[in-house]
Fold Small multidrug resistance family-3 protein.
Amino acid sequence: MVQPRPVAVTRSVLLFVLAALAEIGGCWLIWQAVREHRSWLLAVGGVLALGAYGFVAAAQPDSHFGRVLAAYGGVFVVGSLAWGVLVDGFRPSVWDFVGAAVCLVGAGIIIYQPRA
């Protein structure tokens, strides 16, 4: 079995964080334009950020689209809750933390499993 190298894991984690910022930030900008009736320019910025997310996700070292996106799902859950806390003043419950931890552990298992 081959374990992922620490440099590859570090790069992958940084790409997941960058992807989360682009996707969650892009969605938030569109939300602001549509739901909060703010400038349509925010929606344009959101569309650009969502496009950037696609390119960042494609830069992951793992070559399997489904695996990368499945693992990113766990990062998205944690990132969305963190965004809510930092940007919108959301107060997560203990169950939000437990659910986020389960998602993040699952993401780690999916993307960093030993390979034959």
Notes: The mean pLDDT is 94. Residues 6-112 form one domain. Residues 6-34 form the longest helix (29 residues). The chain has four helices and no strands.
